[in-house]
Model the fold of this input.
Amino acid sequence: MEKFLLSCDWGTSSFRLRLVDLRDGKFIAEHRSGEGISSTFEAWKKVENNLSREDFFRQYLKKEIKALSVETSLDLTKVVLVISGMASSSIGMNELPYAALPFALNGKDASVKIFEANEQFPYKTMLISGVRNDQNAMRGEETQLIGLVDQVQVRLDAKDAIFIFPGTHSKHIYIQDGQLINFETYMTGELFDVIASHSILKDSIDTSSLVESSADNNEAFLLGIVKSADNGIMRSLFTVRTNQLFNRFNKKQNTHYLSGLLIGAELQSLIEKTNSALILCSGSSLFPFYTNAIEVLGLTERSITLPAELVDKAAAIGHIKIFNHNRSLFID
Done:
């Protein structure tokens, strides 16, 4: 079954497995779930038998691969499985060391480990590690980047670019002459969740409104973006509380205002990086927030916003490129 590849993008809080055609990169079938690495690791810790962590993770993978096999009526036994994301972390299937910088974006510098198939798990597996610098680490975004960079290269006039991956831990990834040379991590999404769930500000917002698009909510979001530049985020956050106390915003508007404060604080540093093209790589849920913030901050002219469907395919395309660079490891 050398014409197919099993592509697994396994994050902290999400799981996605795809059957991919190696010849044209098309997806044959896909399964998604909320069984991320964190919940799988916690489930393993509660197992009372002596099943190893590695084998416990394989059990879940085997169940999902079997579902794809039934759905497609294909025997996937000899199809190679490629996994990226948090599966190579300390709470994952098997912890691997990070690759170092600079990191080539053709897939050749990826740090990988091969696991042979066995009777219990008949799928030869390639686990991909992440990348680190002196102060930051990431697992998964580098594989997405490998899958994206060729598709946007023809649209880039600048040699330097900053790829922005919004999320729980947003990444700003610096590219120069075809190499990943540096990156930064912003805890934007996690900080929003902590504030919304555990701080004094939780009673001033209504997070259900994040899916509601309205003129009032959008205006509050944009004001949050503007406010993020005024006094620094630490002094601006309490205005979420006073917005409610002084009846400036209702709770729904205030939620969008808080989002604007945090996203604005994340993107402020990009204003001074005038020599770099900005590439926004956002899924559909965060897409309007970041595109609006980029416009308010005057970054639109040097920004490229990738379609959410392109970003959605990036990990699988990255898997194919990394697999192709490591084909010799799969010759028996």
About this structure: The chain has a mean pLDDT of 92.
